[in-house]
Task: structure prediction
Amino acid sequence: MNTLTGAAALLPRFAEREGSTMNATHFREMTDTQKHEYCMACAMRDNHAAMSEFYAYEKYLDKSIVIVKGRKIPIGTKGVCFYVGAVNYSKLKNWWDWTIRIGFKTENGETFFTSERNIALV
Result:
């Protein structure tokens, strides 16, 4: 029988993706061991949305990004990522319909939210 220890035991509500979800503060406070255990807990539960959100946190959080496509935010707009979230706009909430949303702040203080598909790391 698999038992959860460490971060997986401390953060079951995030791995289950019910109610509250992981946020940037939680991610920044986690040690490498806790991150690994959290990822394993998500994998054991086949929680693809939480896993993709976790990997997006690792890839984008607190890093400089630039808009490379889209129609609402001018292309070339640069900023620092402060928010990562997984959303599902599907009526049926299928596991393959989850998408990652990114929030970032520009140097002059403007805040934007966009899809992960519209950005690149600087």
About this structure: The first strand starts at residue 64 and ends at 67. DSSP finds five helices and five strands in the chain. The two ends are 44 Å apart (CA to CA). Residues 10-20 have pLDDT under 50 and may be disordered.
